[in-house]
Design goal:
Length: 379
């Protein structure tokens, strides 16, 4: 079995240089680095990860705790995290907290005990125990998708990466209002999640912008999953004056809402218009095709890795929250006719706009677009 000394002789460098290439502990000239990598490949050298971690106190691993990994949205985030980690030479350890605060605390502790260098976590509706554990042990952590408020007691503030939620949701509501709808229902997500509260805020903002009043009877919670959304949609349809349009706040709840509409014999958009938050692979295959907000899920995952690596490099730097822009994907479930110039996956995609109408860069359309970062947490 080849050793570091064998690699050093083959590449014509010192053992220390080989170590620097493997561990990234000191800059190495590109041609020297390539010579070392070529020698490793030629000799079939495999680094001893365990031994290296004992020397560097780093395992080159990241813990990822994300609920509902089977959800296409989180699956794409996972792919973004994996690609970003692999690009920088890190492996992943993955756990599913099931959006349960007690289980969340346990799986994060298990990941920590496996000496991951840092963590990326999508927090549950009640992350107090999680945040206390991470802060107490000073675990470098990026909160993913769901943000938390700045703690009043001055305890640890974490880096966060998520998508815009409020303004894109308002965009769906105003679009339906522009089509003439005055009773627009919302199937909201799991209470306690920041994404739920932000999308509810966006819903109310959209109503206000359209000159419509808020009616709490038109808002139901589908708890971010399909079966609960089906029941919630049934409750909306049972109102004495049901909504003429419906907005669902994530992809799983869209499926549940569609089941409820089918069971009630309602046709979309002839009997009721439908828009959804979260674009997904099948949205373009339904008839009618679903008008949706597309989140830059893979970019969220990749950006979370970059923010975590920045934190590992600068442990004492200020915490920051990075928000990525979403895209409005205009199809036909809202009641609009097909755009004759578009077909299939080429549905019209419009970049999300800010509160004053200025277009935001959409990282979904262009992964290399610069991302806007804001220090601290988001109000």
């Amino acid at each position: 079995m080849a050793t570091m000394a064998d690699v050093a002789r083959s590449a014509g460098v010192s053992v220390a240089t080989v170590s620097h290439v493997l561990n990234g502990t000191r800059p190495v000239l590109p041609r020297t680095r390539q010579a070392v990598l070529d020698a490793m490949d030629e000799l079939g050298y495999t680094p001893n990860t365990l031994a290296r971690s004992l020397v560097t106190s780093r395992t080159r691993s990241i813990g990822l705790a994300v609920s509902a990994i089977s959800n296409p949205y989180f699956t794409e985030i996972l792919q973004g995290v994996e690609a970003g980690a692999l690009k920088h030479g890190y492996s992943l350890l993955i756990a599913d907290p099931h959006d349960d605060p007690v289980h969340e605390r346990k799986v994060v502790q298990l990941l920590h005990e496996r000496r991951v260098d840092g963590m990326i976590v999508a927090p549950s509706p009640d992350p107090r125990e999680l945040l206390a554990y991470l802060g107490r042990h000073k675990v470098p952590t990026v909160l993913l998708d769901r943000v938390v408020d700045t703690p009043a007691d001055g305890s640890t503030v974490f880096d966060q990466v998520c998508a815009d939620s409020a303004e894109p949701m308002a965009r769906l509501v105003t679009h339906l209002a522009d089509l003439g709808h005055r009773r627009i229902g919302l199937v909201a997500g799991l209470p306690g999640l920041s994404t739920t509260s932000e999308r509810l805020t966006g819903y109310r903002d959209g109503l206000t912008a359209a000159g419509l009043g808020y009616d709490e009877r038109l808002v139901v919670h589908g708890d971010s999953e399909s079966s609960a959304a089906e029941r919630a949609t049934t409750a909306l349809l049972s109102l004495a004056t049901p909504p003429t349009a419906l907005v669902t706040a994530n992809n799983a709840m869209t499926i549940g809402a569609l089941r409820a509409l089918r069971d009630h014999g309602l046709s979309v958009p002839d009997d009721i218009a439908l828009c959804c938050f979260d674009d997904f692979a099948w949205a373009d295959l339904f008839s009618p095709r679903l008008t949706a907000i597309a989140q830059p899920s893979r970019d969220i995952g990749a950006q979370a890795v970059r923010v975590l690596l920045d934190r590992l490099a600068s442990p004492d730097g200020p915490a920051r929250t990075v928000r990525l822009a979403c895209s409005f994907v205009h199809r036909t479930s809202c009641g609009c006719s097909e755009d004759p110039g578009q077909s299939g996956r080429s549905a019209r995609r419009e970049k999300s706009t800010g509160p004053e109408g200025a277009a935001k860069p959409s990282t979904h359309d262009s992964p290399e677009q610069p991302l806007t970062s804001v220090k601290g947490t988001v109000s």
